[in-house]
Amino acid sequence: MSFFHANQREALNQNLAELQGNINVSFEFFPPRTGEMEQTLWQSIDRLSELKPTFVSVTYGANSGERDRTHGIIKDIKERTGLDAAPHLTCIDATPDELKKIAEDYWHSGIRHIVALRGDLPPGSGAPAMYAADLVTLLKKVGDFDISVAAYPEVHPEAKSAQSDLINLKKKVDAGASRAITQFFFDVESYLRFRDRCVATGIDTEIVPGILPVSNFKQLQRFAAMTNVKVPSWMTSMFEGLDNDAETRKMVGASIAMDMVKILSREGVKDFHFYTLNRADLTYAICHTLGVRPQVASA
């Protein structure tokens, strides 16, 4: 390692130490499909809840069965942990009246935070009747929800251009969104350039980076291909030869994510959203490095 790079690493680590946990973290989970997956989910929620996240979110599928699981998990998280539990809500395969009823049910259940998304279009379907900005408007009519929306540093796969994608994000913010959470990414520069463009466009909400700690690289490549996310060649090299070595993959994935949050924290980022894939170990380790740790009761 050159003297320059050693100094850079020292500066990053010093900056991280100075944060002293003065950052905000949030976590995303998805509804389990089996009893075993449900056990893993709750183990992860229980462990990560010790870190006092600003909120936890639960994803939402287009079919009614998965929707019901999301509803149930959100209410269970709130009752069991007291955390701010934010359900994902999508416009796809639901009428405005149905969405209004779902939102009213959440409001009456004490849920005040919703992640508002358009949702994935079914194969062969035409243009959707509603978009995320329309959903934000609908939610604000039901109650004064705290609303998170999605942002895409490397441009949404269906967007006509980067500029049109940015205009769409501004519509969501102008409709009442409190923050934007980004799609996962690995090119830190793409996030920083995107954040600058948001400011130039008049988007004044927090652009929260979505961090995906990678443990299954082949799965990541499939995700990335569907979502227009660039997987750098250096990352491919780092995971090469580890297809049958899960433990080393975890270490590599944690190292990459830690380096990302170190650089982002130095660039002034104070909020991080972790895509946990329902597993606590990597996210917990990264948060520990950031100084986000369970509070120890004083004697």
Automatic annotation (TrEMBL):
EC id: 1.5.1.54
Catalytic activities: (6S)-5-methyl-5,6,7,8-tetrahydrofolate + NAD(+) = (6R)-5,10-methylene-5,6,7,8-tetrahydrofolate + NADH + H(+)
Domain of life: Bacteria
Pathway note: One-carbon metabolism; tetrahydrofolate interconversion; Amino-acid biosynthesis; L-methionine biosynthesis via de novo pathway
Any single GO CC term annotated in Swiss-Prot or TrEMBL for this entry: cytosol
One Pfam assignment: MTHFR
GO molecular function terms listed in the Swiss-Prot or TrEMBL record: FAD binding; methylenetetrahydrofolate reductase (NADH) activity
GO annotation terms (biological process): methionine biosynthetic process; tetrahydrofolate interconversion
Keywords: Amino-acid biosynthesis, FAD, Flavoprotein, Methionine biosynthesis, NAD, Oxidoreductase
Group of enzyme by EC: oxidoreductase
Xref: InterPro entries: FAD-linked_oxidoreductase-like, Mehydrof_redctse-like, MTHF_reductase_bac
Cofactor: FAD
Transmembrane regions: none
Similarity section: Belongs to the methylenetetrahydrofolate reductase family.
PANTHER family, per the entry: METHYLENETETRAHYDROFOLATE REDUCTASE (PTHR45754), METHYLENETETRAHYDROFOLATE REDUCTASE (NADPH) (PTHR45754:SF3)
NCBIfam families registered for this protein in UniProt: fadh2, PRK09432.1
Name of the protein: Methylenetetrahydrofolate reductase
Gene this chain is encoded by: metF
